[in-house]
């Protein structure tokens, strides 16, 4: 009887203890308050809330490449094989050098330069090639000699009176003949008068030409036959206008013609020649009576 009573008392005490422990446990959990933004209660489980961790709750340097999703790499970025985000360069105009983004050497083609994007300050002096020179403010100018060519009102042009015979083509020079008239030494009252046709550059003109020649007593004067005697030496007489004074003669293939001029007594003569309307003079030619 006594044993049964004791057993009953023990069972009752254990039941009271169990109720007490359960009540105590229930009271503790029910007293816990979650912020419901970063953590929450799900049933009897405390957990981090979905989308609950803001940036302020993440430790400094707490996100490593493995935490980065590929979708984070937006325009201009690409994710490497180890999760890092890299700037996605074309490696022709832009490159990454020692972890630094920069324009690539020789990387900017003409198409990347803005229209009118290069001003004189961008031009190196070496850009000025043959015929160009760089001005003090960086502009490129046409480099003219300012004797045959000039720049007038931003226009390159021939300079007035700047084109000399030396600048003409040989074919053009041949169209501008002149005549050299010389007198040889006097011998027995006679001198050999030589005509040499030359081109515009004063080179002997190797062509057959017709000259008009006359003898005068004054420079560029009218023909005068007084005391004159003329004998052709190296010329073809085309026409005699006035015997001993005025005639047309033809040169040989080298543009040369000559005749003997004899004058009696002491006298001064001038021998003229005309070609293409231009007249040339020998200058003063003196004769001395009885010269040997």
Plain-language structure description:
- With 292 residues, the chain is mostly beta strands.
- The chain has 4 domains: 58 residues, no CATH class; 51 residues, no CATH class; 39 residues, no CATH class; 112 residues, Immunoglobulin-like, CATH 2.60.40.
- Helix content is 12%, strand content 35%.
- The chain has 2 helices and 20 strands.
- The strands form 7 sheets. Strands 13, 15, 16, 18, 19 and 20 form a 6-stranded antiparallel sheet that branches. A 4-stranded antiparallel sheet has the order 11-12-17-14, with no helix packed on it. The chain has a two-stranded antiparallel ribbon with strand order 1-2.
- A hairpin with a 2-residue loop joins strand 18 and strand 19.
- The radius of gyration is 59 Å and the shape is rod-shaped.
- The model has no long low-confidence stretch (mean pLDDT 83).
The radius of gyration over CA amounts to 59 Å
Number of helical runs? 2
Integer average pLDDT: 83
User: Strand-residue fraction?
Assistant: 25-35%
Estimate nothing, just give the exact number of structural domains: 4
Structural class category: mainly beta
CATH architecture of the largest domain: Sandwich
Q: What fraction, in percent, of the residue positions are helical?
A: 10-25%
CATH top level of the largest domain is: Mainly Beta
**Uncertain regions spanning at least 5 consecutive residues:** none
Short description:
The protein has 292 residues and is mainly β. Helix content is 12%, strand content 35%.
Detail the topology: elements first, then pairings.
Blueprint: H1 2-31, E1 39-42, E2 45-48, E3 77-79, E4 85-87, E5 94-97, E6 100-103, E7 132-134, E8 140-142, E9 149-152, E10 155-158, H2 170-173, E11 178-183, E12 190-198, E13 210-216, E14 228-234, E15 236-242, E16 246-250, E17 256-263, E18 267-275, E19 278-281, E20 285-287
């Amino acid at each position: 009887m006594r044993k049964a009573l004791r057993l009953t008392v023990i069972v009752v005490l254990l039941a009271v203890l169990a109720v007490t422990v359960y009540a105590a446990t229930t009271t503790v959990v029910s007293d816990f308050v979650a912020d419901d933004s970063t953590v929450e209660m799900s049933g009897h489980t405390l957990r981090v809330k979905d989308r609950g961790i803001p940036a302020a709750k993440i430790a400094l340097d707490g996100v490593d490449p493995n935490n980065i999703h590929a979708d984070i790499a937006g325009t201009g970025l690409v994710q490497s094989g180890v999760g890092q985000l890299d700037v996605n360069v074309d490696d022709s105009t832009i490159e990454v050098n020692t972890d630094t983004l920069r324009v690539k050497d020789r990387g900017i083609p003409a198409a990347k330069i803005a229209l009118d994007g290069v001003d004189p300050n961008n031009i190196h002096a070496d850009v000025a090639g043959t015929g160009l020179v760089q001005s003090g403010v960086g502009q490129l100018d046409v480099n003219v000699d300012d004797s045959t060519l000039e720049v007038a009102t931003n226009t390159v042009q021939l300079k007035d009176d700047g084109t000399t015979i030396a600048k003409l083509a040989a074919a053009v020079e041949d169209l501008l003949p002149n005549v050299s008239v010389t007198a040889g030494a006097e011998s027995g009252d006679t001198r050999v008068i030589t005509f040499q046709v030359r081109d515009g550059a004063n080179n002997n003109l190797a062509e057959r030409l017709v000259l008009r020649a006359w003898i005068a007593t004054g420079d560029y004067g009218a023909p005068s036959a007084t005391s004159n005697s003329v004998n052709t030496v190296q010329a073809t007489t085309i026409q005699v206008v006035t015997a001993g004074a005025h005639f047309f003669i033809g040169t040989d293939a080298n543009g040369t013609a000559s005749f003997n001029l004899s004058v009696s007594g002491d006298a001064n003569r001038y021998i003229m020649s005309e070609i293409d309307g231009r007249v040339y003079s020998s200058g003063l030619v003196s004769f001395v009576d009885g010269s040997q």
